[in-house]
């Protein structure tokens, strides 16, 4: 009797350990891996696009218009169970170049610059008449072949116009 009780306690203990381990937060890293020494070696007025690419690698994002800014983004996220991941830490390194291709400024920002965008729901609200189920189902009855609608026997196919 005591052996089965000990075995049951062992199984219960293992089950609780596995359940507690399932609640541990998941951590992830996305984007650029920041090396402080390499980032600090880039100097405004000295380095060019080629030297920055050789030291830091290709940027995460390059500006679309004029290609004057390069962005290196690194984000550490965590989530618990099946929740959406939340950014715990973020570093955004913005390197601006002058028209000659020399580094003009280096800007570092953190997690305070993250914008939270919440969609309005499952549908996007639109202006105009809101149609119900039956209007969607039966709304086109009588419009096919009606006079002036361009169907057979009406309208002549030109939408009421005499000339093209």
Overview of the structural elements:
A hairpin with a 5-residue loop joins strand 4 and strand 5 (103-109). The protein has 164 residues and is α+β, with helices and mostly antiparallel strands. It has helices at 2-22, 36-41, 49-56, 133-138, and strands spanning 26-31, 61-62, 69-79, 86-97, 103-109. The chain is flat. Strands 1, 2, 3, 4 and 5 form a five-stranded antiparallel β-sheet that branches.
Concise synopsis of the structure shown:
The chain is built from 4 helices and 5 strands. By secondary structure, it is α+β, with helices and mostly antiparallel strands.
Portion of residues in beta strands equals 15-25%
Question: Average pLDDT, to the nearest integer?
Answer: 76
What percentage of residues falls in helices of 4 or more residues?
Answer: 25-40%
The number of distinct helices, counting runs of at least 4 residues, comes to 4
Radius of gyration: 31 Å
Number of E-type strands: 5
Largest sheet report = 5 strands, antiparallel
Secondary-structure content class: alpha+beta
Descriptive terms for the model:
5-stranded antiparallel beta sheet; flat; 164 residues; alpha+beta
List the helices and strands and how they pair.
Elements: H1 2-22, E1 26-31, H2 36-41, H3 49-56, E2 61-62, E3 69-79, E4 86-97, E5 103-109, H4 133-138
Antiparallel strand pairs: 1-3, 2-3, 3-4, 4-5
């Amino acid at each position: 009797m005591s052996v089965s009780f000990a075995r049951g306690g062992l199984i219960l203990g293992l089950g609780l350990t596995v359940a507690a381990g399932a609640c541990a937060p998941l951590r992830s890293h996305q984007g650029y891996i920041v090396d402080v020494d390499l980032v600090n070696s880039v100097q405004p007025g000295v380095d060019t696009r080629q030297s920055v690419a050789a030291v830091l690698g290709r940027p995460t994002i390059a500006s679309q218009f004029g290609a004057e800014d390069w962005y290196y983004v690194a984000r550490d996220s965590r989530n618990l169970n099946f929740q959406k991941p939340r950014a715990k830490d973020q570093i955004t390194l913005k390197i601006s170049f002058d028209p000659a291709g020399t580094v003009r400024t280096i800007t570092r920002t953190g997690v305070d610059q993250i914008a939270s965008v919440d969609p309005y729901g499952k549908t996007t609200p639109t202006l105009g008449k809101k149609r119900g189920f039956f209007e969607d189902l039966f709304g086109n009855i009588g419009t096919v072949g009606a006079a002036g609608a361009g169907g057979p026997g009406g309208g002549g196919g030109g939408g009421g116009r005499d000339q093209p």
